[in-house]
Records
---
Amino acid sequence: MAAPIYVVLLGKQGAGKGTQSELLCARHGLVHLSTGDILRAAVRAGSDLGHEVSRVLEAGELVSDDLVNRLVEERLAAPDAAAGAVFDGYPRTRGQAEALDAILAPEAIGVCVLVELPDGLVVERLSARRVCEGCGTTYTATDPSAVSGVCERCGGRVVQRADDTPEAIGARLAAYDRDTRPLIDFYDARRLLATVDGDRPVAEVQASIEAALAARGLA
Ligand code: AMP
């Protein structure tokens, strides 16, 4: 069997990491490992984990490294992750990046793609973002599914995320600058970084990401 492929997607909230992760996973048979999705599912399910993290999520702060590292390790151990994964929203701190190296072996990460977007556009995109509670599909406020509140894919409820409010968006951008931005240098120093402009149509961003994978022999 071919060696697993591990791709880290870095970038601010709203840069399009979730959409691009889905496209990458569909094309390469990888698992979309979004720690945000795992945490939100726990909050919706009302599990112990959900109760533990719900306030942190709503405030736009980060949950502890130990907790997310454990979630990632568990998810990677599942059989469907054998071909590899796209990490979306993880790692978010230096501690998490080091933990990921320990979980996978440092040479396992094939590429880290930074999807760039200016802060002004982040606020605009997140304020207009609507998400299906059932399947996670993302819409903009003017899409028919967002207007009707019913997902055209699965019939689930389409809502605004509790942390897509102006206060939480501010806190999340601050957390990105403080904790996550240093990871750009962390991966660049290892020559794993590829930067793409996220302010373009989805298909163009996707083509740039595929080119970054191909350049490293991953496609
Ligand atoms: P996201 O969907 O990636 O924007 O994540 C939503 C929220 O989940 C974040 O604002 C954090 O509260 C929490 N979260 C997700 N991933 C992580 C992570 N890797 N480390 C800490 N907190 C996280």
---
Amino acid sequence: MKKILVINGPNLNLLGLREPAIYGNRDFNALIEFIKESARSLGLQVECFQSNHEGAIVDKIQQAYGVFDGIVINPAAYTHTSVAILDALKAVAIPTVEVHISDVSEREEFRRHSFVSLYAAKTIMGKGFDGYREALSFFL
Ligand code: DQA
């Protein structure tokens, strides 16, 4: 069974509370349950990791080397700023799918550029929680 690491970046732990008009009313626990149920039904093994800290996300990506077959990452605000996360993904060279709950192409100009997109095999945006299921299915 393939092992997939799902990484969620800063402020995604505040789903439900955070800008519900953009991110919806369901909370972070509901997202984790959705991801675990999706993985179960797709026949994938999944581990979920969330951090508000760029370096912790870099550490987790480094530790994924030789352990995980794929990464699903919503780098949140670090999408638009983090060369370090891009470099970590390139270093471990694990196939990666990028997910955004909102459609970042329809929002502020600064959200249109993604460093992670320079490595990710696929980017899914604007599909809410369902985007994570689509990202997991990439690894089938
Ligand atoms: C996000 C979009 C980012 O621009 C934002 O900083 C986030 C969440 C999304 O899931 O839509 O924190 O990655």
